[in-house]
Amino acid sequence: MAESLILPSEDESVQATNDDATSSKKYAVDQGYWKDDYVQFFCRSAEKRTPEICRGYYARVLSIQKLLVKFLKLTSCDCHVINLGAGFDSTYWTMRDRGLTPRTYIDIDFPEVNKKKCQIIKKRKQLLEPLSKDSSHSATPTEISSTELHSAHYHVLSCDLRKVGELSKKLLDLGFDTNTPTFILSECVLVYMSSESSNPIIEWAGKTFSTAIWINYEPILPDDRFGRTMLSNLKYRGCALLGIDSCPDLTSQRQRFLNYGWSHSWALDMCQVYSLLPRDDVARIERLDFLDEKELLTQLLQHYTLSCGFKDTKGIGLERVSLEDKTL
Q1: 37 contacts 91 by C-beta, under 8 angstroms
Q2: Which of 26, 37, 267, 281 places its Cα 20 to 30 Å from the Cα of 45?
């Protein structure tokens, strides 16, 4: 990707989904679905979203944060976090505010996306000052180029994930320790890639990291009426889901990790995930917006999955990084 400044239209369309996701998150945060003091800096204004969309994002964000918090506490933050296709995600800052700063947190995306993210971070003291404070206690100053950022704990890396060798080299150049427990996150990333491109990444990570957990969020069930409509709408926007046919359901989502070097795996649809979130908080957010058709929300949640693969060579207890207990 670095060899050309002109991206294929499909890549541009996929990158544009970052703006849509950021806007959706900001709208939901503005309505009080969850707390994020930093998403506002990555999105000036947010278009109104339906209650179904807001609740879908709530389930997505809260479940992933819950799993990440469990992992950070389990490892006492002596760990790595890698966010593949991170876009304008602000999780590093929200975790830092909770006193949960990992040894290394890496957001990875296309250079074109990262260029905008680096510009925003550079201009906003609310984003830049925490990184500078971290670096003041380290030999690593905060360095920002046009498409990458490096500080004591937080990094923005530019990489085409379809090139596994490039990703591996970038991490090695950072001095990345593959024996340190690692949390990998991908949200609607693998599904935009063909299985010929995504499977090598899963296999590379499964072979490279001795103790790691991978959390993946993406759509499933393309063959029913709702699924066909979903695919048609995305195709109209130029976003073909190249990987959905190879992993169309929960069984294949689980098996993919087991096929490529991961010892354990689980997968839930987002309806199941929603039922595992804290009931008092769910009751709170359900009072924020009146939901006329609950069936539509159910269909939406059933067509997305949160899946996981993990390997625990060190025996640190990664099986406890789950959604089973209903506390945040």
Answers
A1: no
A2: 281
9-320 classified as CATH 3.40.50.150: yes
Q: What is the value of pTM for the model shown? A: 0.94
Q: Which residues are annotated as a binding site for S-adenosyl-L-methionine?
A: 60, 85, 160-161, 187
SS3 305: strand
Residues 13 and 237 sit within 8 Å (Cβ to Cβ): yes
pLDDT digits (tens, 9 = 90+) for 10-53: 778 888 889 999 999 999 999 999 999 999 999 988 999 999 99
Known binding positions: 60, 85, 160-161, 187
SS3 per-residue string spanning 72-88:
HHHCCCCCEEEEECCCC
Whether residue 194 is predicted with pLDDT greater than 70 in this model: the reply is yes
Q: Which two tokens stand for residue 289?
A: 């917006």
325 CB burial (10 A radius; 0-12, 13-18, 19+): exposed
Rounded CA gap, 184 and 105, in Å? Answer: 10
**What integer is the mean pLDDT of 176-191?**
97
Q: Among candidates 185, 187, 149, which has minimal Cα distance to 17?
A: 187
